[in-house]
Amino acid sequence: MRHFDLHCDTLSRCRNLKESLLHSEGAISVDRGLIFDQWVQAFAVFIDDDTRGVKAYREFLAQAEVLQKAMAESDSIVPYDKDSVRDGVCNAMLTVENGAALGGKLERIEEFAQMGVKIFGLVWNGENELAGGVHSEQGLTDFGRKAVRELEARRIIIDVSHLNSLGFWDLCEVAERPFIATHSNCFEICPNRRNLDDLQIQEIIRRGGLIGINFFPVFVNGESDTTFQELRAHIRRIVALGGEDNIAVGSDFDGAAMPSRLDRIEKIPDWHQNLLKHFEPEFVEKITFRNAQNFFEKNL
Question: For residue 233, how far is the Cα from the chain centroid?
Answer without folding.
Answer: 20
